[in-house]
Amino acid sequence: MDQLQDSLGRRIRYLRVSVVDACNLGCVYCMPSSRVLFTKFSNLMSPSEIGTIVEAAAEVGTRTVRITGGEPLVRHDIAEVAGCISDVGLIDDIPISTNGIFLREKAESLSSAGVTRANVSIDSLQPGVFREVTRGGDIGRVLEGIKAAARSGIWPIKINTVLMNGINDGELVEIARYALDHDYSIRFIEMMPLKSNVAFQPKLFFPAARAKKLLEEHFHLSAVSHASETGPAVNYGVEGYQGHVGFITPLSGNFCSRCNRVRVTSDGRLRMCLFGDNMVDLVGIIRAGGGRDEVAAKLREMIQFKPEKHYLEIGKTSSETLFAMSQVGG
Ligand code: SAM
Ligand code: SF4
Question: pTM score, two decimals?
Answer without folding.
Answer: 0.96
